[in-house]
Amino acid sequence: MRRLSRTILSVLLLLAAAIPAALHAQPAHRAILRDKLQRELQRVADDYAGVVGIRVVDLTDSTAIGVNDTLVFPQGSAIKIPILLELFRRADGRPALLRERQPVTAATRTGGSGALSNFTDGGSQLSNEDLAILMITLSDNTATNMLIDLLGMDAVNRTVAGLGLAQTRLQRKMIRPELMRRGEENISTPREAAEIMARLSRCALPVSAASCARMRQILELDKSEPVREVIPRSVRVASKPGDVEGVSTSWALVELPGRPFVLTVMTNYGDSDAGRALIQRVARLTYTHFSHLAYATPYGARVRP
Q1: What is the pLDDT along the chain (305 residues), one digit of tens a residue?
Q2: What is the CATH number of the domain that holds 55?
Q3: Which listed residue, of 62, 119, 155, 279, carries a Cα 20 to 30 Å from 27's Cα?
């Protein structure tokens, strides 16, 4: 009996020694895959005529990779996500705010993207929540400027700064070329934008759980967006793109079943159409990477539920 007990103990000790080795072997495999993606993304950035910044966050294990991800870039309409955040933060304290209506007038109409610039003077009133939906889905600049007037740029920036993000700033209304020339630009970095989207994924923002869920619903509404366009329609994507001449950006939370991730891509000093194509290429590479990880067993096989 004593000999049998010693034999069982020896087997258990061998198994215990083997378990850590097995556990450490597979993170090493995943690190190889991450390094490959890093190199591919770096090549894409190096081949682009302008400057590219990229941040990718694996929401399963919180690992991240980046290319120029601390550089500051103009945001175009992607800066509208912090405006959406401030609206819902404010509405948590005053729920009626979302239903309050604002008139669309000649004084509020703004050019560029959207539909409200074509509305008649004083012919319509829209709720603040509907303005937010237009701001995100159609990138409506009139709706955006109306919400900026309502909320205040300083309030939007205080909320973002409260997240520890010092380089994400709303500094002008939409379609203000004279301010752009003076350097009053709406800015962020791939890393800070990715932090906002990662916080959205786990509702770690200064809003209620219900407001967080509603923000995600709005950001998932169908829109023309380069990340969304290359990912299967069965996968939910909460995102907002931005484009001005020479600049293309996208902030995206991709709810890939089994391996959700965040992707932020920013370009400047380039061509807007080429920048959009670059974002699509980056999104394809990143989606392929995470598709290989989704539903993976500890040894790299995939078993779907």
Answers
A1: 555 455 555 545 444 444 444 444 478 898 999 999 999 999 999 999 999 999 999 999 999 999 999 999 999 999 999 999 999 999 999 999 999 999 999 999 988 888 999 999 899 999 999 999 999 999 999 999 999 999 999 999 999 999 999 999 999 998 888 888 888 899 999 999 999 999 999 999 999 999 999 999 999 999 999 999 999 999 999 999 999 999 999 999 999 999 999 999 999 999 989 999 999 999 999 999 999 999 888 888 888 87
A2: 3.40.710.10
A3: 279
Q: What domain range includes position 214?
A: 34-293
C-alpha–C-alpha distance, residues 55 and 197, integer Å: 11
**Entry pTM:** 0.90
Could you tell me which residues are beta bridge partners of residue 242?
249
Contact 221, 133 (CB under 8 A): yes
Measured distance CA(302)–CA(305) in Å, rounded: 10
Alpha helix locations (H) across the chain?
2-47, 80-93, 128-137, 141-151, 153-161, 177-181, 190-201, 209-220, 226-230, 272-293
Q: Would you say residue 196 lies in a domain?
A: yes
